[in-house]
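Quiz preparation item.
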């Protein structure tokens, strides 16, 4: 199998990069996943959304954010007036990490080593797509996008300058909203997420 090294020349197009990523063995996660789930969207999108890693349904479909978290994201961005087809949507880690439990595959959070290995692809996606605005959804995306050890809650909901003239906007991951057991807290957190998407919509215009 082909193993790109740090010295390898970046592929010239997103399609070429996707083809390279499809055979990636840079970390052990490829061994148990069905396939690489690469980013999706216009190759010159102005806005890039970054999640954590594909889930069970994404692993099978080979597309990011098509499962429960993706449906929630679709609904909230649509309400905020954001057209998903204009976004480039990707993940910090491109293989599904899970633990088998009976017939189910239980999502496991990628560790920092896996995030660092996979940042190779995320950085190249950013270099090729050149988005003006990057939206980090959740702490894993934030860790992949910045070396600063800032806590998500401290910088959430603000547009921040990134190197290369880009803007970074940090919000929570939609899966987090789906897991909140307390109804009141859930409603509050949904409202904040909706506000974040409205702010992102404003930054896009
Ligand atoms: N969660 C993510 O972070 N990414 C996906 O693609 C799906 C669920």
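Solution:
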């Amino acid at each position: 199998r082909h193993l790109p090294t740090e010295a390898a020349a970046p592929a010239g197009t997103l399609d070429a990069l996707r083809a390279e990523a499809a055979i990636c063995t840079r970390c052990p996660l490829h061994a148990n996943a069905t396939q690489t789930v690469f980013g999706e969207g216009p190759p010159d999108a102005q806005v890039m959304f970054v999640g954590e890693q594909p889930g069970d349904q994404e692993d099978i479909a080979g597309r990011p954010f098509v499962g429960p978290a993706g449906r929630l994201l679709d609904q909230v961005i649509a309400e905020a007036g954001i057209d998903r087809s204009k976004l480039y949507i990707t993940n910090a880690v491109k293989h599904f990490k899970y633990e088998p439990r009976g017939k189910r595959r239980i999502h496991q959070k990628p560790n920092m080593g896996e995030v660092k290995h996979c940042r190779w692809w995320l950085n190249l996606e950013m270099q090729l797509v050149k988005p003006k605005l990057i939206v980090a959804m959740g702490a894993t995306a934030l860790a992949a996008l910045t070396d600063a050890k800032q806590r998500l809650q401290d910088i959430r909901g603000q547009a921040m300058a990134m190197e290369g003239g880009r803007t970074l906007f940090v919000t929570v991951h939609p899966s987090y909203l789906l897991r909140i057991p307390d109804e009141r807290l859930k409603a509050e957190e949904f409202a904040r997420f909706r506000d974040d998407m409205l702010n992102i919509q404003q930054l896009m215009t």
